[in-house]
């Protein structure tokens, strides 16, 4: 096992552009486990759900073949989101209920020997101080920044972005930060992506992964830039695409130490993730490699 993922498992109410409504299990750990399963890998999950969590979703968790020593049912409510998508891919979110906080003591000691931990908060269910605590244990610490820049609009109840005031203190402690372009501007309190990137890299952050939906992704490693192309596909449900991208990236990078190659694998994985609805993987590692050979000139399997 190379990777532990910590964050809330959610129930996502998804409203698509064609007017349909679906309910799926979601959250960073779920899309991480689905990605790992598709790639033939195994990960550990640290997460909490409440007693209101649907039985069918618990069955889905078990079907993804992740190690669940860090998973627990605690409290009365789970993290529940409404995700409403426009045809452009733009998403409006609301929080319908919250789960309990996740703390360092919730990480089983048997996970301490795993080289990489990815922190995937979705709405302030962990504190930034957890970065300090896991920094002393894990060789590679990765963070999805979305959970530290979200608040609730008191007018309509939707999720809005706010600056992460302490980001300059915590970015240098990370090995990897994953954000989308809007989140990075929200974290740094800027309106231009270039300014947001400059501010993030000025903290001596080692690796910055920026997903940009149909525009592909940008990876900065030790301030060297890698542009990752989009792998074209028909979009059915964009939920979890960013999670799939970063998990695929981490799993590949741990083995290959190659940012661009890992980014290509991640882009292909994301293209499969958005081509169907729900987290259960409908592709394999062989499918990912085949797609890259078909779409990327000079792609060489490592």
What does it look like?
The chain is an alpha/beta fold. Helix content is 30%, strand content 26%. It contains 9 helices and 15 strands. It has helices at 28-38, 55-63, 129-135, 167-170, 181-188, 193-201, 241-256, 259-273, 285-295, and strands spanning 3-6, 10-15, 21-26, 43-49, 67-73, 79-85, 91-97, 116-119, 140-144, 150-152, 159-161, 176-180, 207-211, 217-221, 224-228. It is globular and about 50 Å long.
CATH class: Alpha Beta
* Form type: globular
Total discrete domains = 1
Tell me the series of helices and strands, N- to C-terminal: EEEHEHEEEEHEEEHEHHEEEHHH
| CATH architecture identity | 3-Layer(aba) Sandwich
Total number of helices:
9
Proportion of residues in extended strands: 25-35%
CATH topology: UDP-N-acetylmuramoyl-L-alanine:D-glutamate ligase
Q: Helices and strands: which structural class?
A: alpha/beta
Spell out the CATH superfamily. Ribokinase
């Amino acid at each position: 096992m190379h990777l532990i993922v910590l964050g809330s498992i959610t129930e996502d109410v998804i409203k698509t552009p064609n007017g349909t409504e679906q309910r799926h299990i979601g959250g960073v750990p779920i899309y991480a486990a689905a990605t790992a399963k598709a790639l033939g890998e195994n990960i550990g999950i640290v997460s909490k759900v409440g007693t209101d969590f649907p039985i069918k979703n618990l069955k889905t968790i078990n079907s993804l073949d992740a190690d669940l020593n860090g998973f627990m049912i605690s409290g009365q409510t789970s993290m529940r989101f409404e995700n409403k998508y426009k045809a452009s891919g733009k998403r409006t979110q609301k929080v319908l209920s919250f789960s309990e906080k996740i703390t360092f003591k919730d990480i089983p000691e048997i996970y301490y020997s795993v080289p990489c931990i990815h922190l995937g908060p979705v709405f302030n269910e962990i504190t930034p101080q957890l970065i300090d605590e896991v920094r002393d244990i894990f060789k590679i610490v990765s963070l999805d920044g979305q959970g530290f820049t979200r608040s609730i609009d008191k007018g309509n109840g939707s999720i809005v972005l706010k600056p992460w005031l302490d980001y300059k203190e915590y970015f240098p402690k990370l090995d990897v930060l994953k954000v989308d372009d809007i989140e990075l501007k929200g974290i740094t309190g800027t309106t231009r992506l270039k300014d947001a990137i400059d501010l993030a890299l000025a903290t001596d952050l080692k690796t910055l992964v920026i997903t940009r939906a149909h525009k592909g992704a940008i990876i900065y490693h030790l301030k060297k830039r890698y542009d990752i192309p989009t792998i074209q596909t028909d979009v059915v449900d964009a939920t979890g695409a960013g999670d799939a991208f970063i998990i695929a990236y981490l799993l590949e990078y741990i083995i290959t130490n190659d940012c661009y190659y890992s980014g290509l694998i991640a882009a292909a994985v994301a293209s499969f993730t958005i081509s169907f609805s729900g987290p259960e993987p409908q592709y394999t590692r062989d499918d990912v490699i085949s797609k890259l050979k078909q779409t990327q000139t000079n792609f060489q399997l490592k």
